[in-house]
Specification:
Length: about 45
C-alpha cells in the first residue's frame, strides 16, 4: 500500500458515480503516470 499526497506529480484522480444510491462515499479511479514516490511512503518497509 502507498500513502501519498493526492497532489503528487503524476497522480491523477477521476471520480465516478457511487454504486449505491444515496451513500456519502466518494469513489475514484487513481492513475499513476511516471509518478515518483519515496520509499518512506510504502507501508511495506
Amino acid at each position: 500500500m502507498l500513502l501519498i499526497p493526492a497532489d503528487t506529480p503524476g497522480v491523477t484522480r477521476r471520480p465516478f458515480a457511487s454504486v449505491c444510491a444515496g451513500d456519502d462515499l466518494d469513489f475514484n479511479e487513481v492513475f499513476f503516470t511516471d509518478a515518483r514516490v519515496p520509499v518512506e511512503a510504502s507501508s511495506m518497509n
